[in-house]
Amino acid sequence: MFTSDTVKMLGAAGFIAMATFGAHSVTAQHEKSVAQPKCEPLEVSVYFQPGGTELNEFATRVLDNVMREMKYCELGRIEVDGFADATGSSNRNLAISKMRAEATLSYLTERGFEANSTKMDAKGDKGAVDANGQPIVMRRKADLRVIPLTDAV
What we know:
By secondary structure, the protein is α+β, with helices and mostly antiparallel strands. The protein has helices at 4-35, 57-69, 90-109, and strands at 42-47, 75-82, 117-122, 141-148. The protein has a four-stranded mixed sheet. Strand 2, helix 3 and strand 3 (117-122) form a beta-alpha-beta unit. The longest helix is centred in the N-terminal third of the chain and has 32 residues, at 4-35.
């Protein structure tokens, strides 16, 4: 037969077990809701030094954040457009913009960040000056679009 102390200990153990289970359940629900991916199209720009085609530390952090944000999403498409400013020859700017797009896409794919399809385009210096002939700022970049499978076109 159980003594009253044994019954009290069993009751306390049961209460602790229920409280622990309840807390674990709440924690698991919270973790699940926090971990749910926001699988929506994402667009960012990655900027380069004048004439540069290599990713700097800031650019790699931007790309790392994109990969982290889309970690749990099935990707339908990755699109990268490279741009250049109006400094130098148009042929050289086209080549630079292509290398910027390639550097951006390579950084992602070398780390296993891939989609069902990819599209890469080099814009060169096309559109690098406004109607008044003034240079458009912040043109030394690659624009990245990540499109989850559900939104892929």
